[in-house]
């Protein structure tokens, strides 16, 4: 598996398996199948409510812990220094692990600086190998960087052919932050899986559109975490390192960028209010 080296020297697989929107009762089998297919990066979150199932799959896999890269995230409800410490312990317990490879602030809302102080301390104690954020636009990311000691290792943001985030990626590159994609397939919106540009490229390589998108992300040095509950799709999605897109093909995909989210904008006041009101526990 190809890897990227984070700003603290930690190796992270460039392709992993995400469990967003997989129901808890299906998650253990999905992660078991993903590990069997060769995935070693697993991405979950407190807000997904399936950390325990991920943990069971890890425990039963027999794969040495050092071969795995496990990510989870702290939710808005648990923002702040003390709340984040408690949330970290809860997530670690549910996963059945003694450390995390990556811990992220899930949303740029609430007392993110307090959360970051807690995460910096956990990182110094060796309980987290790397710390980062998700859904931070460049201004919020730089604010966090200049006002704290540790620069985020990762920023996980919506990134797909229709919202390519090239400017965001350049800001991250300048500050040594690794970009990671969520929603790499745009959840099939804009007819992604049958899009003529992507389909033509896929046909030329004898690959699927999904494989072309994942290869496009990896060639941009973007970490991706595609989700599936089908073992055959998992195997297909990880089989993307035996071909390379040409410069012309990369340029054709670049032309699909709309510059806008297909889901929601974290700078929209109504969305901020809605997200802040989402509670994942009593």
TrEMBL record:
InterPro entries: AKR, Aldo/ket_reductase_CS, NAD(P)_OxRdtase_dom_sf, NADP_OxRdtase_dom. PROSITE patterns: ALDOKETO_REDUCTASE_1. CDD domains: AKR_AKR5F1 (cd19133). Residues 21-256 form the NADP-dependent oxidoreductase domain. Gene3D superfamilies: NADP-dependent oxidoreductase domain. Keywords: NADP, Oxidoreductase. Belongs to the aldo/keto reductase family. This is Aldo/keto reductase.
């Amino acid at each position: 598996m190809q890897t990227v080296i984070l700003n603290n020297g930690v190796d992270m697989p460039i392709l992993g398996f995400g469990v967003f929107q997989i129901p808890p009762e299906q998650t253990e089998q999905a992660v078991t199948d993903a590990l069997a297919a060769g995935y070693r990066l697993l991405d979950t979150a407190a807000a997904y409510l399936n950390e325990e199932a991920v943990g069971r799959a890890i425990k039963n896999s027999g794969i040495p812990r050092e071969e795995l890269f496990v990510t989870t995230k702290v939710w808005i409800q648990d923002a702040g220094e003390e709340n984040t410490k408690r949330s970290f312990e809860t997530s670690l317990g549910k996963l059945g692990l003694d450390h995390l490879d990556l811990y992220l602030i899930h949303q740029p809302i609430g007392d993110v600086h307090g959360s970051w102080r807690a995460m910096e301390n956990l990182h110094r104690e060796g309980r987290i190998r790397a710390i980062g954020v998700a859904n931070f636009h460049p201004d919020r990311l730089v604010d966090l960087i200049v006002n704290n000691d540790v620069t985020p290792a990762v920023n996980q943001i919506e990134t797909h052919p229709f919202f390519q985030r090239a400017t965001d990626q350049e800001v991250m590159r300048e500050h040594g932050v690794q970009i990671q994609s969520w929603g790499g397939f745009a959840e099939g919106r804009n007819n992604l899986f049958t899009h003529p540009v992507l389909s033509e490229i896929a046909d030329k390589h004898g690959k699927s559109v999904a494989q072309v998108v994942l290869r496009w992300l990896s060639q941009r040095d973007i970490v991706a975490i595609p989700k599936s509950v089908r073992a055959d799709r998992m195997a297909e999605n990880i089989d993307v390192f035996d071909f390379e897109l040409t410069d012309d093909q990369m340029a054709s995909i670049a032309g699909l960028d709309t510059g806008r989210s297909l889901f929601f904008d974290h700078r929209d006041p109504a969305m901020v209010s809605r997200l802040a009101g989402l509670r994942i526990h009593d």
